[in-house]
Amino acid sequence: MTDPVHAFEEMLAQSDEGKYKLRLYVTGHTPQSNRAVENLKKLCEARLKDRYELTVVDLFQEPERAKGDQIVAAPTLIKELPLPLRRLIGDLSDTNRVLLALDIKTEEG
Amino acid sequence: MKLERRVEEGVGSRLPKSPTGIRGLDEITQGGLPAGRSTLVCGNAGCGKTLLSMEFLVHGAREYSEPGVFLGFEETVEDLAANVASLGFDLKGLMAEGKLVVDHVYIERSEIEETGAYDLEGLFVRLGHAIDTIGARRVVLDTLEALFSGLPNPHILRAELRRLFRWLKQRGVTAVITGESGASTLTRYGIEEYVSDCVIVLDHRVAEQVSTRRLHVMKYRGSLHGTNEYPFMIDEHGIVVLPVTSLGLEHEGLEERIPTGVSQLDAMLGGEGYYRGSSVLVSGTAGTGKTSIAAHFADATCRRGERCLYFLFEESSSQFLRNMRSIGLDLKPWSGQGLLRFYAARPTLYGLEGHLATALKEINAFDPSVVIVDPISAFQGSGRPTEVKAMLIRLVDYLKSRGITMLLTNLTSAATAIEHTEVEISSLIDTWLLLREIELSGERNRGLYVIKSRGTAHSNQIREFLLTDNGVQLVEAYVGLEGVLTGSARLAQEAREQAQVLELEQELERSQASLERKRRSLESQLETLRSELAANEAESERLLRQREERHERLAGYRSAMERSRRVDHDVDEETR
């Protein structure tokens, strides 16, 4: 059962299309911001090693990005690729939801 | 002008206010919204919330040099700009000038996943940045409650909104937050509990197929404000809240009198016509000549070189002009000279407030000295009687406050008492003319009474009212033992009287003739007598002469005798 999926994931990992393009918007160094950054980094290392590109945007430093990227809540994680675009709000502490939202199989593990 | 004065007063009072620039709203709120605080504007869909808030920003940016930020959750910048472009608001231009920031906050629920604790700091940053960029003094959040449907976890949202309002206050901006009406609360998510300074409720209802918009200042902490529901409308310049000019009776009574256009009517009103700035009602059943009276007044006004604004609600202006020409009133030249302006519309075209606002706009634009509304009864279908009355009170008050004379006509249905005005406005009226039909001996004639005329000595008599080729003529009705007679009955009575007079004259002539005859006969008798007398005199003279002649003859004889009888003579002489 797991083989084809695994094969697919490996295939994805080699192509650009399998790459995760993520942007995390935080507001300075609030506990929530810090938690979000930590949680995301941990998860990416564990599940998306070598196939993700993460940018962290501090809205306090670049406030104009809030308008340009339609940010309301903080922290917000935008999964730009692979499509569809998803927005994850909160400190990313609910790992199951994060995985679901990022389209990463939870059973894997 | 009045508006500006009030605004200044408002600013000068305890609570600093931020004028909205919306016609009428600044009067109700006595200067505008509370400056540096938040105002909630709520109402159902399509009630004009977004427009009101956008006007607040545009006027602020254009007229009060207060730049503004519009944070819209529902419409894109393009849509907003297009929607208000028809009102003459150039959003893009204001944005380019740095007087306005419009930001569309796009939240798509299906894209969003909640993964833990979050806050709205993103929104704060976004708003703060926009405010700082242009130094905004005004902020609109339209419709903030969209957050509830777009973001999960209402508990967090509530806490964050509370923080948002505190934050707005700290920033010192005057904010307008819009919200959609909820089932039992003012707003769907009850955000009114966070906004405690000022709450304005808008309402848009359709009753009997006529839509009416209303505005109500529900709460205004620390300030006096009009508490009624005020009708408002959206015209090509935006929102107009209907005038609240006279909350009291402050208009001054003018002494000047102006002619009615019908000299006999002037005479009935103490010889001089209506008071300037008064309200005149002409009521009557169908076809009694109300419009003709109104047209005469319009004609007289224009003849003095004053402007007259004529609202026609039952016929077109060309139809009206034609009909008036048929009674010898040619009003077309006045309209050509710009002294007479018509405004013709079906009463059902707008709601009452729409009519009122249009009327006021026309009045302000044309600045007439006389306004004629023909007829007010046309509004009956547009609202409940109390609403119609409220509208007319506002109109009458407004015109009085400006010293404009108004003449209203009212069609009374034959089924009701003749003095009954359908919209019961008689108490607002200074001079009331009643036209009625008088049915007598198989014909209908028109009669005119002055029911009341405040401040003038007026005739209490009925006059017969004739529509002739030379306009309206008032004829003194025949009042005699047989009652009031009009029409052919009056003519018959007059003919009878004329016959009587004729008869009398003939009799007089006859008696004069007989007198003459008598005189002549007496004179001839006198002549006879005189000639008789003359004859007698002549006879007596003749006799006298005869006698003398006889004497002479006798004397002659005697002397002859004496001569012949000389002796005798001596004897005689001796004997004597």
Description of the structure:
- The complex is a heterodimer of chains A (109) and B (576).
- With 109 residues, chain A is of the alpha+beta class.
- In chain A, 39% of the residues lie in helices and 22% in strands.
- Chain A has a four-stranded mixed sheet, with helices on one face.
- Chain A is globular, with a radius of gyration of 14 Å.
- With 576 residues, chain B is α/β, with parallel strands linked by helices.
- Chain B has two domains: 2-107 and 120-241, Rossmann fold (3-Layer(aba) Sandwich); 257-476, P-loop containing nucleotide triphosphate hydrolases (Rossmann fold), CATH 3.40.50.
- Helix content of chain B is 41%, strand content 24%.
- In chain B, the strands form five sheets. Chain B has a nine-stranded mixed sheet, sandwiched between helices.
- In chain B, α13 packs parallel to α14 and α15 (487-564) crosses α16 (566-575).
- Chain B is rod-shaped and about 200 Å long.
- The N and C termini of chain B lie far apart (142 Å).
- Classes of the chains: A alpha+beta (109), B alpha/beta (576).
- β4 (86-89) of chain A pairs parallel with β6 (112-114) of chain B.
